[in-house]
Amino acid sequence: EGAPRRGEWERSEEGLAERGPGAAFHMFVLMEDLLDKLKLLSYEEEALRRHNMRPLSRHYFALPTNPGEQFFMFCMLAAWLISKAGRPFEQPQEYDDPNAVISNVLSELRSF
């Protein structure tokens, strides 16, 4: 799902060429910034240890490697950040319905 289909890749490459040579690497810069911010919030101690998970690599969300695992990590971090912001939010489980989890996260974010 995360990888572009034939034709989409060509269009995305054309779009990158129009934006400049560094546009292809912008997602990697964003991921590194995200990781720095998560580290400032002590995500390793507070979020990952609770779930016995390894720290994220600096390109974890920039490259589609395991969409199911990446989706769960995203939802787990979103739930943790919502809780960190002072709102009670139930931590999603790995086998919860993805649509329900995203709906709950978006609903909570809209209430901010």
TrEMBL record:
Keywords per UniProt: Cell projection, Cilium
Primary localization class, coarse: other
One GO location term (cellular component): intraciliary transport particle B
GO biological process: intraciliary transport; non-motile cilium assembly
InterPro entries, sorted: Intra-flagellar_transport_57
Top-rank taxon, per record: Eukaryota
One Pfam match: IFT57
Compartment list: Cell projection, Cilium
Family membership noted in the UniProt record: Belongs to the IFT57 family.
Protein name, UniProt field: Intraflagellar transport protein 57 homolog
